[in-house]
Amino acid sequence: MNIESLYAPVSIGETSVVGSHCMLGYPKEARISAEQKMPGSPKVGSRMIIGERCQLANQVVLYEGVRIGDGCVLEDRVRVGYDSTVGAGTRIAYGAFVCDRVTIGANAVVAGFVCDGTRIGDRSTVMGELVHE
Fold this sequence. Notes:
By secondary structure, this protein is mostly beta strands. It has one helix spanning 29-37; strands at 10-12, 17-18, 23-26, 48-50, 55-56, 61-63, 67-68, 73-74, 79-80, 85-86, 91-92, 97-98, 103-104, 109-110, 113-114, 119-120, 125-126, 129-130. The strands form 3 sheets. Strands 1-4-7-10-13-16 form a 6-stranded parallel beta sheet, with no helix packed on it.
């Protein structure tokens, strides 16, 4: 199986900077499993979008369907799960693990672990583990 063919299309703002060893548009586990069972014609993944003036540090992993608003900073080793949205001006701190289908508002600061389906409001600060659904 050629996993590179499963990666989703990615749009990056012209004024954004992406560090080294980042993975963008990484496929959902369900699409990888489907390709393993029936090789040959994987469905195209959901487009991943990075806005303008964003800074992605090193070893950032963004799954398919992720939308990053303008002016965001994602520090080293951040992971953002599929179909998540990060509002404009938000900072995600070193090593944060944001799971799938998470919505983070504008001008927020997030660190630690955020579980699936969480909603974080504008101008919020979340540090530590947010483990409810």
